[in-house]
Design brief:
single chain, alpha/beta
Length: 341
Amino acid sequence: MAQALLQFNDKGIYCAAGDFYIDPWKPVERAVITHAHSDHARWGHKHYLAHHLSREVMYYRLGDISLETMEYGERTTINGVEVSFYPAGHIIGSAQVRVEYKGEVWVASGDYKLEDDGLSAPFEPVKCHTFISECTFGMPVYKWRPQREIFSDINEWWRFNAEEGRTTVIAGYSLGKAQRIMQGLDLSIGSVYLHGVIANTNEALERSGIRLPQAERITTDFKREQARGGLIICPPSAVGSPWMRKFPAVSFGYCSGWMAIRGAKRRRAADRGFVLSDHADWDGLIEAIGATECESVCLTHGSTASFSRYLREIGYDAFEAETHYGMEDDEAGETKVEEVV
């Protein structure tokens, strides 16, 4: 039996023909990275390959690494195997990895969403024989409303808080969700303030040429009372911390796909929960898989058992793989975020 072009081992998704890994979770010689979230882009590899918009964020997060970058659609050859990147729509710089060898094509999705958020390059389906897909929200209960409706709700909530003299605080992970929130805000309501981790991430993105709306970093000499009427964006790690408790009359909201589940807002101790996800919902997953015209589907993280069963019922050769993904980008919060003022 022929060896699969991409295999799963104790280090990650391995291409034996090219001797490289995709999003490995243990140190390897050569790592091809789908995006800069910490569960996909880890420290310790000898050489990295990623999309060019991930460059500065990866340097910020991982330090002085050996990093090569490519544009979407650009092709490179690694030990005779052709590798190229295509937009995943997940966050800025996120990419699907297309791997071709002797006429066989596999695509590793990383994380992805289909809705064009106006910030990330929109998802682009790539035809392949085998599609390695996430399925974080691979259950029928997860069906997203258009983001314009979600941001209308967020701005209405902020406007009400501002009129009441309250401080609006909204949590979302520092890479991806925070920038998406910023872009959807109505800046006529008030000023926007950023936790230091998010401000640092924005500065890294701006070094890559990304233009983001105006916002003020919260520093040690920031007068907390001036936050009244404004909106603060913070990472999940700051929720309930001494940093957050210093602000006056806080109304706290949380942005996450998990807010679609009853009780999630209560568990977050949030006043408001907004269902805003950077992953595909149930319909989006099915649409994306169908658009690849693939013969086989491998599911890496999320609702893998139930979703693979459904895919088999509708005619796909679907199987599951055990991986280490989902530790940051599960929308439950970042694994480690230092408190930077």
